[in-house]
Amino acid sequence: MQLTLWSYEGPPHIGAMRVAASMDGVHLVLHAPQGDTYADLLFTMIERRGQRPPVSYTSFQARELGSDTAELVKNTIQETYDRFKPQVLLVGESCTAELIQDQPGPLAQGMGLPIPVLSLELPAYARKENWGANETFYQLIRGLLKSRVPAPGSERELRASGARPLANLLGPSALGFRCRDDVIEVTRLLDSIGVDVNVVAPLGASPADLLRIPEADFNVCLYPELADQACHWLERMFGQPTVRTVPIGIGATREFLAEVGRVAGLDVTHTQDPIWSRMPWYSRSVDSTYLTGKRVFIFGDATHAVAAARIASEELGFTIVGLGTYAREFARDVREAAKIHGVEPLITDDYLEVESRVAEAHPELVLGTQMERHIAKRLGIPCAVISAPVHIQDFPSRYAPQMGFEGANVIFDTWVHPLMMGLEEHLITMFREDFEFHDGATASHLGAGAGAGRPQESRSEPVETTDRADDSIMTWAPEAEQELKKIPFFVRGKARRNTERFAQERGILTITVETLYDAKAHFGR
């Protein structure tokens, strides 16, 4: 067993919590020990929700394991029904409770409650959070709609002449990445081409809404990690086609609209020009040409990682030096994207392996999760968050979608900002010794003498040393340190490492300016 400090995904019952917390009229009862009751923290603290999640626990203790914990399960389920009066009850167990094999689902189904009771089989030691959310959403839709599946050979009713097509948006959920705003943006996109949204699920949906899903002409699988299994089932049972293009980035948004047009039988040529997106102009403008060729490392869930790789390569002109995901169920998609971009795919849920690969690749920008934000901070590399798992600051109060044309604007600002700040700090450093801009200079707008007597601040970096195998110590000459500071800080770490490696291979113990330039020439070939 491997011990870890961080985890990209929780166990599958966390995924079940996310689906229950997304919906109205659905309650989840978890057979779990005292101490596993952390749903409130997840949703109220991280996502800043205004209400507690609809999750109840049996909360058994160690002393109860020798008695009949099955009776505890039934009492908790009855109390939950009496108190919350849910329309649908989900019953599952945490990873610890799975070991004692009380089977709470069948117990609940045998209690004769007057509502649908769905038993969740969530193998905690074989699967993880996204799979648990995907399975829970599928079981909900299948459990509520299986009695309404049309007979084999029957045809779907055609919509009335002149009526606007209807679409379901499937996949957005609680604790997802920018789901709230993505739904608004995609609804706006569909409305612009004459398509109405029938149901959004699970986010904000009720069991009654799920019963209306078959009324739509097609489904949009916005987040495959959560909705692909449900979309496949609806396609087989109800003949509803699925739009699978995820509209993240200008190119993907245009393809999404084209696919919706084909499925719904609409002419969408008038939407080819994204009149409310500034990203295409910005990415071609003189002000951003210095971004071309920047080395970027991408890691996240499969949907956002693949989309980010396409945007980085095709729309911003970055060079991709790493691409990976922690979502093993969607590893094939990431491998195919990595092949297109000419990099070795990284499929892992070990953050230490991710850190090692980032350090080896020497990127100038990292696009990842909150884990990569910490990794990039330690390595001194700019980072932008593109995927869950996320921190509280990635649930902004403002409107900040990732999808659609407005989402492309948000992505451009989010990704380019760290690099812009890098250039700004580099320019400040370059001109620090200038008679107008050095640290002791008087601010021009404050008048003569305003800065008199102000002590000059020293911002010199600590001299790093590298222990050699023979216990001798490599040092940097002061003039070499000064020369190193002229290199932009966002690539300075790479220059330092390359120079030290160059010196170590040649037995050089004191790095001079000449060594620095020799190393630059060596690695520039």
Write the layout of secondary structure elements.
Blueprint: H1 12-22, E1 26-31, H2 39-46, E2 55-57, H3 69-84, E3 88-93, H4 95-98, H5 104-109, E4 117-119, H6 129-145, E5 166-170, H7 179-192, E6 196-201, H8 207-211, E7 218-221, H9 224-238, E8 242-243, H10 250-264, H11 279-284, E9 295-300, H12 302-315, E10 319-325, H13 331-341, E11 345-347, H14 351-361, E12 365-368, H15 370-379, E13 383-385, H16 404-430, E14 466-467, E15 473-476, H17 478-484, H18 489-505, E16 510-511, H19 513-524
Parallel strand pairs: 1-2, 1-3, 3-4, 5-6, 5-7, 7-8, 9-10, 9-12, 10-11, 12-13, 15-16
Antiparallel strand pairs: 14-15
Cofactor: [4Fe-4S] cluster
Domain Nitrogenase/oxidoreductase component: 12-419
Domain Light-independent protochlorophyllide reductase subunit B-like C-terminal: 476-520
How many distinct helices?
19
Strand content: 5-15%
- Number of extended strands: 16
CATH superfamily heading of the largest domain: Nitrogenase molybdenum iron protein domain
Number of domains: 4
CATH fold-level label of the largest domain:
Rossmann fold
Please summarize the sheet with the most strands. 5 strands, parallel
